[in-house]
Amino acid sequence: MNKLGMLFFTLAAVACMGQKEYTSPAGYDLSHPSTLELPAVLDEISGISFAAESDTVYAIQDERGVVFHFKPGDKRLIAAKFAKKGDYEDVSLFNDQLVVLRSDGSLYLFPVAETNQEEAAQVKEWKKILPEGEYEALYADPETHEMVVLCKQCAADKKTGKVTGYVLQWANDSLFIKNNITLDASAFSKGSSGYKGAFKPSAIARNPRSGQWYILSSVNKMLAVADKNWQITETHTLRPSLFSQPEGMAFDKEGNLFISNERGGAGNATLLRFERKL
User: Fold this and answer.
1) Which domain holds residue 165?
2) Structural domain contains residue 77
3) What span, in angstroms and rounded, lies between the C-alpha atoms of 8 and 121?
């Protein structure tokens, strides 16, 4: 091989070595979503959830105390105010109630039926019910009446490579912390999965088919999968061209995976749908 040929071979090899590998959890293809552009009012979409027996999406954005709901593809968007302006990060349906998480660990609970009004009237608020920290990921379980909240940034996790979570119990019209959970992200926070530094969850959802926990991180551009005992079993690096700022995640009743992106650059906020293959 002449010198010019050797140069081209070397450059091609270096380029291949620099390419990231984008994988997907079983049953989904994270490289080929159906994409829905969202209206400007949802540019800062920060959390999504699905009604249990319908295709209605409930969404919040992180600047206003307003919950929106719509059906993908339907231009009609219904909004209901539930609180004053604030940094609201996630939303989850909880039987006939809707739960919203504020970044400081405060939780808001109100009837789903009131999302058809201009303003929810029966709002229960638990101010900073969680220890001091920053929170973005919430999941409410309608069967156990439990809620799971993960730290994005909490003092207890600093320099440990771990993520603390809290399980809250809803009973007798009250809410309290039941126990703590810990996600050990240290194994892949050392660069093995394409990033360095702390793992910072932005959303959490449970796969209705497998029971696995899906944990999304916008900062790390990563999707982690954990088993029922909160052991992380796999991680998937997200393609930046599709996941500009992934902040919301949910499964619909059929097990299809949805991830929402806040507006990035000159584009619109998007809702990505990944069809369940298995």
Assistant:
1) 22-274
2) yes
3) 68
Backbone angles phi, psi at 228, to 5 degrees: -65, -20
10 within some domain: no
pLDDT tens digits, one per residue of 92-102: 998 899 999 99
Helix (H) or strand (E) holding 58: strand 57-61
Residues 52, 253 contacting (CB under 8 angstroms): yes
Two tokens at 258? Answer: 């949805």
Q: Is residue 17 part of a domain?
A: no
Tens digit of each residue's pLDDT (9 = 90 or more) over 207-243 = 999 999 999 999 999 999 999 999 999 999 999 999 9
Q: Which strands make up the sheet holding 222-226, listed edge to edge?
A: 203-206, 213-217, 222-226, 232-237
The answer to whether residue 3 is domain-embedded is no
Question: Are 119 and 81 contacting, i.e. CB atoms less than 8 angstroms apart?
Answer: yes
Q: Does the reported pTM lie above 0.85? A: yes
* CATH number of the domain bearing residue 266: 2.120.10.30
CA dist., res. 213 & res. 149, Å (int): 12
Q: Are residues 227 and 233 in contact, defined by beta-carbon separation less than 8 angstroms?
A: yes
- Over residues 70-108, the pLDDT tens digits come to 998 888 999 999 999 999 999 999 889 999 999 999 999
Count how many domains the chain has. Answer: 1
